[in-house]
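Hypothesis: this fold can be encoded by more than one sequence.
Test: take the structure tokens below, design a sequence, compare later.
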């Protein structure tokens, strides 16, 4: 019997082991089926991280434009062409410095003859039919003969000159400071001198003691929710014998500094505008409905910074500017609570004259304000020291200064593309820093620094590869241009040779 029991226990334990192994095998089979069905990516963290990092690295690269050195086709840079037609000569002219519509208007205005219609009204009729091709910036002038075409061409050479490009640097500085000081007194004396006389003690609907002499809380309700109370309180909670004299004192100081330095470049006589906008939230307290607890709403308002300038360059070197500047802010602290408010400063100047290299203060505002209100009981409020218990004061002083400065100059043109891209990369690059104690403790092996170095080297290698591709494309384009010029030269040589042979044959 003992042997049978032992055999039975062995069989039962082996069956338990088999059931556990079957569970493990079944679980593994389920995981394999999930992975095979496409759910394995849910648990795969590393591929997701690598893919994300690869996409971000590619998008963060600042690449140079491979087409910046593509030349203008030769046909656009050549001299004006002419063709003879039945009733005269057609002149084809590609504009070099000005839009085709402007030059067409000049030709129609300058080459016109005064005529009279049937009603006796005089007007100017253009001498030539001028057509425009905006897509190619080309003028087509219908002239009666070559002499007239020469006059038009000479006129175009005088007026189609490079326009003056002006750089306008605007500096706007605003400074603001505000200081407030107020105190208010809450007083309650029950059973004064034992004669059941009560002094103060006004309470609101919730049973809270109201200030006998309120300060800044009259103009800003939030002021009553903070501040330092000090004074004397005796027999607290003892009805009929409570004595309380508390002063709430608060001093607030705040300042704001704003500097805006927009820069614009535009052609002489053309308006340029730069605008920056923020959709700023504004909290509004609603207290209009009776019987309803006041609640707050959040409105949004555009806060804009705008610079609008039209320059005019004169022959004496001076530059005239028609200017409109608007400076917006949503950070100005106001009042006892120093609540941020939205402000807007605007200046408009029709025209002023500035010499290149000089700066001009086109406008400025300096403003100071002071206000003070004292409340209290006559005679008692003037008693030294204890007069504070019978009075309140609300004082505020603030000052604002705004300066608008313009500095115009003749623009030197653009900057080399590669140099500008390098400057942008430096501004966009992550700042270099030395490892401190925190980095040593959190990353003792320096894996993060190593990863950053590897990513930086990879980005640099990608940049070098892209740059080499650009140079290769440019070299191939230059070879194609040289081939085109050689073929054109060979064609011209063959044409001249054939022409010479025809002349010799005629002779």
């Amino acid at each position: 019997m003992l042997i049978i029991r032992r055999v039975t226990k062995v069989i039962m334990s082996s069956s338990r082991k088999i059931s556990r192994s079957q569970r493990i095998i079944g679980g593994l089979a389920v995981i394999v089926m999930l992975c095979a069905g496409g759910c394995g990516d849910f648990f795969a963290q590393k591929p997701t991280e690598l893919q994300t990092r690869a996409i971000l690295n590619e998008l963060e690269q600042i690449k140079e434009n491979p087409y910046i050195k593509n030349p203008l086709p030769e046909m656009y840079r050549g001299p004006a062409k002419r063709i003879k037609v039945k009733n005269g000569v057609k002149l084809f002219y590609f504009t070099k410095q000005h839009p085709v519509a402007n030059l067409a208007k000049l030709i129609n205005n300058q080459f016109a003859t005064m005529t009279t219609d049937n009603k006796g009204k005089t007007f100017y009729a253009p001498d030539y039919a001028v057509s425009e091709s905006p897509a190619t910036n080309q003028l087509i002038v219908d002239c009666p003969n070559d002499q007239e075409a020469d006059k038009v061409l000479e006129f175009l050479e005088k007026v189609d000159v490079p326009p003056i490009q002006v750089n306008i640097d605007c500096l706007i500085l605003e400074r603001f400071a505000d200081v407030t000081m107020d105190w208010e007194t809450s007083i309650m004396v029950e059973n004064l001198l034992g004669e059941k006389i009560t002094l103060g003690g006004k309470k609101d609907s919730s049973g809270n003691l109201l200030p006998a002499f309120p300060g800044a809380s009259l103009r800003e309700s939030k002021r009553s929710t903070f501040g330092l109370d000090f004074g004397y309180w005796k027999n607290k909670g003892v009805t009929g014998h409570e004595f309380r004299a508390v002063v709430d004192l608060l001093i607030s100081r705040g300042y704001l500094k704003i500097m805006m330095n927009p820069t614009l470049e535009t052609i002489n006589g053309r308006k340029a505008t730069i605008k920056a906008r923020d959709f700023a939230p504004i909290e509004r307290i609603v207290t209009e409905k009776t019987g309803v607890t006041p609640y707050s709403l959040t409105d949004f308002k555009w806060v804009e910074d705008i610079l609008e300038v039209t320059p005019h360059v004169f022959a004496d070197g001076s530059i005239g500017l028609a200017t409109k500047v608007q400076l917006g802010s949503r950070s100005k602290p106001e009042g006892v609570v120093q609540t941020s408010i939205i402000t807007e400063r605007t200046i408009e100047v029709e025209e002023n004259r500035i010499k290149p290299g000089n700066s001009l203060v086109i406008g400025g505002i300096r403003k100071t304000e002071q206000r003070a209100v004292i409340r209290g009981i006559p005679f008692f409020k003037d008693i030294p020291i204890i007069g504070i218990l019978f009075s309140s004061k609300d004082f505020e002083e603030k000052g604002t200064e705004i300066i608008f400065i313009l500095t115009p100059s003749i623009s030197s043109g653009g900057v080399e593309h590669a140099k500008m891209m390098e400057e942008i990369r430096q501004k966009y690059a992550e700042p270099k820093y030395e490892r401190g104690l925190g980095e040593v403790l959190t990353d003792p092996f320096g894996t993060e620094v190593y990863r950053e170095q590897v990513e930086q080297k990879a980005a640099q290698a990608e940049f070098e590869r892209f740059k080499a591709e650009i140079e290769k494309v440019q070299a191939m384009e230059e070879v194609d241009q040289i081939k085109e010029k050689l073929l054109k030269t060979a064609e011209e040589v063959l044409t001249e040779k054939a022409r010479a042979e025809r002349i010799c044959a005629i002779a």
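Helices lie at 2-36, 45-60, 74-77, 100-110, 146-159, 417-428, 437-442, 447-506. The first strand starts at residue 81 and ends at 85.
Hypothesis status: open.
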